[in-house]
Amino acid sequence: MIKIDAMMVCLDLSDIDEKLVAFSRTICERMQVGKVYFVHNIKLYELGDDFREMFGDVDLAQEVEGNINDIVDEQFANKTAYEVLVSEEPNTEVILADLVKRYNIKLTLLGKKMSTKSTGSLGTKLLRILPCSVLVFPETASFNIQKVLVPIDFSDTSVHALRLSKNLSDQLGLQLEIMHVYRLPSQFFPLISEEKAVRKAEEVVKGKFADLQKRHNEIAGIPYTLVRAANKSIAERISLHLEKGRHDLLVLGLKGNNPLPSLSLGSVPTEMYNTDINVPLWLVYSEEVIK
């Protein structure tokens, strides 16, 4: 059973906040969550002189905290313990990473606007710096989750994401599908036929699945789909399969094994985050990686 001792919900005082708070309520209703922290950081240096002249010495943090409490009272209404935290720091990523460590946060809920409304730059930075798993909730996503898709590449990272997805599906009665996107070494065409190459590639991948199922008996019965990347990226193929299969949640593993933060996510999770998908995206770290 998946237990979340502490969850952090990042709010930005925009329209998506109400959806995030309501979605956090749904998570608490369906999973064991110890405590929820609703957080917002005020960047005082971004406030212009006009603001200061107009409002003077108003306690902005207190006003923001009151606004968040109003949203939480209206949308959360849950027995789960919660706390509202408002800070005034110049660097939002750093203060949020500090909160994760201070309160032993296991999961951070992060809202995401469509690319036409936001660059998503802060979200990308948070994914690279937060030492915990992140659940990204697009503004167009639904709260109703029934089908889960977990793409794997047979790495330890993706196997961890798969096992977590299996536990989640068993716990909540969800439908789970595994996906693997493969590429063919096109530089060898036309030395060998494309049909033969596809057949051989799928044979190799099926062998990997059989070996994986032997090592992890709990995933033996989960259906899996093999998809050739062809002229598209892996992330593009995942997006197409999400839409075709009408999945409600995408789970991807985060590598986190590179000392350079800019290289720690992996290209597929980064590209998927920057894609306008309409389902929540759960980017998971294993406990070993976080440590």
UniProtKB/TrEMBL annotation:
Domain of life from the UniProt record: Bacteria
Q: Which residues form the UspA domain?
A: 145-269
The cross-references to SUPFAM superfamilies, in alphabetical order and at most eight, read:
Adenine nucleotide alpha hydrolases-like
Similarity comment text for this entry: Belongs to the universal stress protein A family.
Q: Protein name, please?
A: Universal stress protein
| Organism of origin | Pontibacter aydingkolensis
